[in-house]
Amino acid sequence: MTQKGEIPEPVRRLIDRGVEIPCPQAVEIDAEINPERIAPGVVIHAGSRLRGKSTSVGPGSVIGGETPATVQDCQLGYDVELKGGFFSGATFLDGSSMGSGAHVRSGTLMEEEASGAHTVGFKQTILLPFVTAGSLINFCDALMAGGTSRKHHSEIGSSYIHFNFTPRGDKATASLVGDVPRGVMLREPPIFLGGQGGLVGPARVGYGVLAPAGAIMRRDALEENHLHPGSNSSLEGPPRPYDMTRHQSIHRVVRNNLIYIGNIRALREWYDEVRPRFMCGDAYRKACWEGALLRLDEILTERVKRLGQLAEKVSASLDQAVNRHGADPDMEPFRGQREFCDRIPRMEAHVRGDAKGAAPEERNRFLHIWAETDASEGYVRAIQSLDDEAREAGTAWLQAVVDMTVSVWQSDRPG
């Protein structure tokens, strides 16, 4: 047992390695922490805790700079700042940051220079490079892209919320703000979600969309470079009966879920084929690469599970409508509900399958160009240096992964 005034051995090992711990007796380092995964020069401030054998912290990173931070089974790249809060099962790439009071849970991936201010909640959240979240935000189960630099970035306004739980108890509600095929190219207009607003999932939002402050977006906003006013309520008028167990048309919900899953698969392919060149050269970035793959696999598993749970609820709703209320099963929305329930096993198998057969010509053309791209100034500069031919090939390849995913739910009905 450590005596009063002594420095615990796990802390001592980090200090001996060159980690800066200004107040060593006020820091907790789990015995499972591998000192070799914590870079010399990392700063860990008083009250902070490092836990979990998969934790890795890259050079220049600072933990607990504003308030104590707990970092558990996370991977941090270079120059990451986690200023205070709780972080578990998340991956932070170079230059990303979170303010104090953060609550960041599993399935979160923040790419280069993405950031959140104080008191932000993420879970199953992906922010592509430069995306910025303000303060007092809950933005779980969503992917957001857009913007070309830290000065030209997509923004989530303060006090924003992604509504990811329905009155029926559904969580098949992941929303896509931007997308992967175009978003990874770092060339699209920013998206602005105004403060004290909300997005009701599952939804899709196009590039260049402006949602004004206070707006609740209850529908897809796919007209790019437009203002989408949303509303503060879509339930105006006198109170009326409402059955929380009854589902209406689920075509859009299913399609949006498959598009989201397709984007996760596309990003998984990107990390398989494109990212290793820049992330496997040293142990810290490789740990982030492995962590990112794990996060994406976690998200894919979660989204498939939630879609299956939705099918169970829709099946019960359909049985009640037909057997108890005499609804015609060949009329909409019941026909679409039955099709969804019948197809869900095939959907689940389809989205877990191999995506490497999508657009092989575009994939190979992009990867050939990528292999010749100057890597000396890092990933972001290399992406920004790509010419139109490379970007178009890469986008076509990734979009084919999305389209292949959605193909399991073909319909001529409007989306």
What can you tell me about this protein's structure?
The protein has two domains: 169 residues, Hexapeptide repeat proteins (UDP N-Acetylglucosamine Acyltransferase, domain 1), CATH 2.160.10.10; 156 residues, no CATH class. β20 and β21 form a beta hairpin. The longest helix is centred in the C-terminal third of the chain and has 42 residues. The C terminus is likely disordered. α5 runs antiparallel to α6 and α7 runs antiparallel to α9. The protein is globular, with a radius of gyration of 23 Å. It has a nine-stranded parallel beta sheet, with no helix packed on it. It has nine helices and 29 strands. With 415 residues, it is of the alpha/beta class.
Rounded Rg: 23 Å
Residue share in helix: 25-40%
Low-pLDDT residue intervals, each spanning 5 or more residues: 411-415
> What fold name goes in the CATH topology slot of the largest domain?
UDP N-Acetylglucosamine Acyltransferase, domain 1
Attribute tags:
415 residues, alpha/beta, UDP N-Acetylglucosamine Acyltransferase, domain 1, 2 domains, 8-stranded parallel sheet, 9 helices, 33% helix, globular, disordered C terminus
How do you describe this structure in short?
The chain has nine helices and 29 strands.
Topology readout:
Layout: H1 9-17, E1 28-29, E2 43-44, E3 49-51, E4 56-57, E5 62-63, E6 69-72, E7 75-76, E8 81-82, E9 85-88, E10 90-92, E11 97-98, E12 102-104, E13 108-110, E14 115-116, E15 120-122, E16 125-127, E17 132-133, E18 137-138, E19 142-144, E20 147-149, E21 152-153, E22 155-156, E23 161-163, E24 175-177, H2 180-183, E25 192-193, E26 198-200, E27 204-205, E28 210-211, E29 216-217, H3 251-273, H4 276-279, H5 283-324, H6 334-351, H7 360-372, H8 379-384, H9 388-406
Parallel strand pairs: 1-3, 2-5, 3-6, 4-7, 5-8, 6-9, 7-10, 8-11, 9-12, 10-13, 11-14, 12-15, 13-16, 14-17, 15-18, 16-19, 17-22, 19-24, 22-25, 23-26, 24-27, 25-28, 26-29
Antiparallel strand pairs: 20-21
